[in-house]
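Section handout, structural biology tutorial.
Before the tutorial, make sure you can parse a SMILES string by hand: atoms, branches in parentheses, ring closures as digits. In the record below the ligand is zinc ion, and the chain has 106 residues. In the tutorial you will relate the predicted structure tokens back to the input. Do not try to memorize them.
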Amino acid sequence: MKIHCDCGATLHDADRSRKAHLIPDQSIEDLMDEIDRAIETPGGLLRSKEGACMRIRKRIIEITRSAWQCPNCARLYLDDPKGELRAFDAVEPGGSGGILQGPADR
Ligand SMILES: [Zn+2]
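Predicted structure of the complex:
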């Protein structure tokens, strides 16, 4: 997937330093409860470690939405709840770049 930003830059889906997954607050408690159940259920995780991992991964994929940031103008692109791509301009052009980077990218 490629996103063509209005500034002329092209964002590539594979560029993980400019991409993140967002979890709405309305969903994160359910995810935490699912992880707790996988770990704390007697025999649950140990009995089916692979099943517990797959169930949690599936749940994470269901509740997360993708976000990208343009490296040139810092514009944010986010998938809305319907999966439509939405653009948000940075208030501080260029000054708020790298907002989606993880600790390894800093
Ligand atoms: Zn841009």
